[in-house]
Write a structure and sequence with these properties.
Helices cover about 0% and strands about 50% of the residues. It is built from no helices and 11 strands. The protein starts with a strand and ends with a strand.
Length: about 120
């Protein structure tokens, strides 16, 4: 069972940047499809970004395209989400998620989750 621990959330003004980290144990981040999700109060969970094993392909939600970048550090066994040009509507709890598949086939393959890290964007 993958153990995932997110960090890097916080409060930032609109237009600012944050980088979220997801440290994994019992799991090799480079070997599988991984992703980031978010959930705002009263809203459904939304897929933000996902990436295939070996960084072969990344896909982003429409609301974050061009602003967010998903990446990995193999040596640190950590997944990242670089978030630029943040908007108030990006405010949410952000979750790291893992699969046991090489390729990402959708937003429903994820079966391991971190505890989340809060991102708040103020005007």
């Amino acid at each position: 069972q993958a153990q995932l621990v997110e960090s890097g959330g916080g409060s930032v003004q609109a237009g600012g940047s944050l980088r979220l980290s997801c440290a994994a144990s019992g799991y090799t981040v480079n070997n599988y499809c991984m992703g980031w999700f978010r959930q705002a109060p009263g809203e459904e969970r939304e897929g933000v970004a996902r990436i295939d094993h070996n960084d072969m392909w990344a896909l982003y939600g429409d609301s974050v395209k061009g602003r967010f970048t998903i990446s990995r550090d193999k040596g640190k066994n950590t997944l990242y989400l670089q978030m630029n040009s943040l908007k108030p509507e990006d405010t949410a709890m952000y979750y790291c998620a893992a699969t046991r598949t090489y390729y990402c086939s959708g937003w429903t393959d994820f079966n391991s989750w971190g505890q989340g890290t809060q991102v708040t964007v103020t005007v």
